[in-house]
Amino acid sequence: MNILKYKNYYFAFSGLLIAASIISMAVFGFRSGIDFSGGTLWQIKFQSKSASIGALQEILRKENFENPLIRNGSTDNEFFISLKEITEEKHQQLGRQFGEQLGEFEELSFASIGPAVGKELRNKAVTAFLMVLSGISLYVAFAFRKVSYPVSSWLYGWVTLVTLFHDVLIPAGTLSFLGWWLGVEADINFLVALLVIMGFSVHDTIVVFDRIRENLMNSKNKEKLEEIVNDSVNQTMARSINTSLTLVIVLVSIYLLGAESLKHFTLLILVGTITGAYSSIFIASPLLTLSKRK
Fold first, then answer.
1. Topologically, how does it sit relative to the membrane (predicted)?
2. How far is Cα 9 from Cα 4, in angstroms, rounded to an integer?
3. Which of 5, 51, 167, 280 is the most exposed place for a label (fewest CB within 10 A)?
């Protein structure tokens, strides 16, 4: 199968997805969770099923909470409530009102984070993300240092960096759109999902690059880079697809059967897994051939 023959189509398709993701992030932005913006996250479960999102919102609006974000948990009588930071006195007052108007409930969790702490977490998250990107690129360049012709070892690192951006931008754009459409928040789980995606993506890419390195070292004619890359991709394609498909099946199962609180986290990893498998085969390897030394 001649993978490289249609590389311009692969680049165009990825370009469209990345453009859509960037537009989504520019237009909609992200709905920051309390981890990054500060606030209160309250998880409660009512004994009866008479409570509803609308009833909870009505109580909170009367207490001057504008547009409170409330979503169901794993059952219809379980709720996650996101609010601005509140005092313990206000916490107890709202609890009494919920109990009086909607019946007895169990408080499963209550967490309140100040805006200063949220800002610090956000800054640390960005720093960690950039450090991971840099570390992965340097590691790949070092790992392939013995293969400097017809492609510089540093280009393996740069191509890996490009594919990582490809693989995290698309899930990030997806989250941005979901935040506008469904009110999904970007919290610490969002960062964890991106790091998981990066780990899977770089693993898949290195498998292909390692086969390219092996075939280059065994080849007597290194000038035929396109042919060597194409053969290497075909030799590893079945493994990449099978590995990705196994993970996709697991993620789909978790999404359909797992807890409500894991759904969006799982969906992001699912999107990243698919884009990572796609980029390792159809983006990373063709990019190497564009960087061939003359």
1. Multi-pass membrane protein
2. 10
3. 5
Query: What is the DSSP secondary structure assignment for residue 2, as one 8-state letter?
Result: -
Higher pLDDT, 22 or 120: 22
Structure tokens at 266: 């799982």
Look up the pTM and report it.
Answer: 0.84
Pairing of strands 69-72, 78-83: antiparallel
Q: Residue 44's pLDDT is what?
A: 95
Q: How far apart are CA 69 and CA 74, in angstroms?
A: 17
- Answer yes or no: is pLDDT of 2 > 70: yes
Q: Which amino acid type is present at position 66?
A: E
Query: Cβ neighbours of residue 158 under 8 Å, at least 6 residues apart?
Result: 137, 141
Residue 292 has a pLDDT of 61
Count of residues in the chain: 294
Per-residue confidence at 258, pLDDT binned at 50, 70, 90? confident
Do the Cβ atoms of 48 and 55 come closer than 8 Å? no
Strand partners, 83: 40
Q: What pLDDT is attached to residue 148?
A: 61
d(CA 6, CA 9): 5
Sheet holding 69-72, edge to edge: 69-72, 78-83, 39-46, 105-113
**What DSSP assignment string belongs to 244-256?**
HHHHHHHHHHHHH
For residues 125 and 173, the model is more confident at 173
Domains of the chain: 4-34+117-290 (1.20.1640.10), 39-113 (3.30.70.3400)
